[in-house]
Amino acid sequence: MTVPVLSVRNLRVEFVTRRGTLRAIDGVSFDIAKGEVLGVVGESGAGKSVTGLAAIGLIDPPGRISGGEILLSGMRIDNLPPEDMRRIRGKRIGMIFQDPLTSLNPLYRVGEQIVETIRTHLNLSEQAARKRAIDLLAEVGIPAPEKRIDAYPHEFSGGMRQRVVIALAICAEPELIIADEPTTALDVSVQAQIISLIKRLGRDHGTAVMLVTHDMGVIAETSDRVAVMYSGRIAEIGPVGDVVRNPLHPYAKGLMGAIPTLAGDDKRLVQIPGSMPRLSAIPPGCSFNPRCGFAFDRCRIERPEPIRHGAQSVACHLFDASAKDSAA
Amino acid sequence: MLAFTLRRALQAIGVMIAVGIIAFSMFRFAGDPVNQIVGIDTPAAEREQVRKSLGLDDPVPVQFVRYFANAVQFKFGISYQFRQPVASLLMERMPATLELATVATILAMVFGILMGVYTALRRETLLAKTFQAVSLIGISLPTFLIGILLIYLFAVTLGWLPSFGRGEVVKIGWWSTGLLTVSGLKAIIMPAITLGLFQMTLIMRLVRAEMLEVLRTDYIRFARARGLTTRAIHFGHALKNTLVPVITVAGLQFGSVIAFAIITETVFQWPGMGLMFVQAVQSVDIPIMAAYLLMVSLIFVTINLVVDILYTIVDPRLRSTVSRAH
């Protein structure tokens, strides 16, 4: 079996605040293979973005990685010195942020920003880097790139700016792209274009993609596998078809039940009662137990570990064969 | 772009006309100018003679237009005190003030920006905290006190620097400069520090606040995610964005530096326009006061215009909105 591009093992991220240490990520593990798109979904505050930032080494104080390890193509990167990590950022891991309107420096031409990034990572002359920048803009679908390269960010529309951001993320042919809500700030019509662009780039270059979003539609369209996160843990992870059609974890079930369908069966959408616990007040046992319709005594005491169930993996006591009887 | 510049220039002219009205009305508020020219025992007929020869019997609007027309040609009348044309008096004094203000502003900009960047990037170091504390003193201590303290320390106690005056000056055309002689350079150090200290602390605090703000923006985070070096991020991306508001403040402050020079020039007996203005106030020398008012506002308005144009050069977003709006 080949080494996964990104391998996260039992990751823990903590934020030290005046009121104590908050654990934003608590024991998250997953792999992304070459050319694979992993979708990460969950509510706001579930730890999706923090996981992405941890992978690229951009967790700022007071946050810190307090446990576990992150491997990039088999090499451990979570404990690298800052300067070595900087060389990996942009070169081996590209990142796309949510808001294309604010991701680009307004005072520099987009070409200057792309050339700067290329020359930081690759040993190219100014002309060669500019040539490459034009090719990149063409590849992400910007018309007349040789003209647009000298435009300023404010002269692009939101969707076009996100294309520029993507060009910046892929300019050194990274092995992994982390896309943090890349379509949330865009119009629906533009969303589809950006999604298919990311998908195409991943396929053409064999790039692994970690796609963080709260939009199940985007996940269903793009991802090969999906991880459902809840209060800093992965509730369920598996192939996208299985998880969407046959979610196992009660939270994942609730999430899928909340997606409206076009079929028009006039059923009310299912709603998960309550809201996700704050990081300072995570209940003992399974953090989902206060909102879970299937919770039993064990859920309130013991934290569930991921259990394999077919191609899926689910962190829920309901699927622990040895305890199945007590659940009934 | 041209339309924008023209519009701003027209606004500037409007401001100058308004200031001209105020300067002109000073002559009337301060009593009958004839009384200030002639002696107490001058007979009424002679007074009328003077009034007529000076055109003071014409209707007020006519007088104003005449005053303004003269002022545009830098003819501000004759000083009561010195019996010399005000324009030549001002011209004589202006280089001293402008040199002082320029040196003070350059000091303030260079050290203000350096210290601001340092305190923003190395917030937790002892030096940064010291800068912060010292800057509070700079903001809160009045100029004259700082000047007097400097004189006490460096002129009286240590005897390193002269306590007053401009030192030797060299004439270049009509411009007299003290920046080319050793004694002139020594003489400008303390006044320039005194005058620039407030601006320096202001710029430092502004740069620090702006820099911290910019470092939190998405494009800085994205620049880090692109793996750019810390240096490129801080000095290429963050500092340039910080400088936009700094240019405004520094530009506007240059005007107030010239205005505040009155106090510094008095403390150091610096032979500039400000010192002349203070002396003019003491002897109710209205032509000098009015001319000073006009000169200072002309400088202010010019700087504002330059700052507006500089903006559009630094920030491309303004460039296109400007051309789109007109």
* Morphology of chain B: globular
Distance between the termini of chain A: 39 Å
β-strand amount of chain A: 15-25%
Shape of chain A: globular
Name of the CATH class of chain A: Alpha Beta
**Percent helix of chain B:** over 70%
**Assigned CATH architecture of the largest domain in chain B:** Orthogonal Bundle
What's the main sheet of chain A like? 8 strands, mixed
- Class inferred from helices and paired strands of chain B: mainly alpha
CATH uppermost class of the largest domain in chain B: Mainly Alpha
pLDDT averaged over residues of chain B: 82
Distance between the termini of chain B: 8 Å
Remind me, CATH topology of chain A? Rossmann fold
State the main characteristics.
heterodimer; A: 328 residues; alpha/beta; Rossmann fold; eight-stranded mixed sheet; disordered C terminus; B: mainly alpha; MetI-like fold; 2 domains; two-stranded antiparallel ribbon; 13 helices; globular
Please characterize this protein's 3D structure.
The complex is a heterodimer of chains A (328) and B (326). By secondary structure, chain A is an alpha/beta fold. Chain A has one domain (6-92, 172-327): Rossmann fold, CATH 3.40.50. Helices cover 34% and strands 23% of the residues of chain A. Chain A has helices at 48-56, 82-88, 100-103, 110-121, 126-139, 145-148, 158-169, 188-205, 216-222, 240-245, 250-257, 297-301, 324-327; strands at 6-17, 20-32, 37-41, 63-72, 75-76, 93-96, 176-180, 208-212, 225-230, 233-239, 307-309, 312-314. In chain A, the strands form 2 sheets. An 8-stranded mixed sheet of chain A has the order 6-7-8-3-9-10-12-11, with helices on both faces. Chain A has a 4-stranded antiparallel sheet with strand order 2-1-4-5, with helices on one face. Chain A is globular. Chain A starts with 5 loop residues before the first strand and ends with a helix. Mean pLDDT of chain A is 85; it is low at 324-328. With 326 residues, chain B is mainly α. Chain B has helices at residues 2-29, 33-37, 44-53, 60-72, 86-121, 126-140, 143-157, 182-215, 218-225, 230-268, 273-282, 286-314, 316-325; strands at 170-172, 175-177. In chain B, helix 1 runs antiparallel to helix 12. The termini of chain B are close together. The mean pLDDT of chain B is 82. Classes of the chains: A alpha/beta (328), B mainly alpha (326).
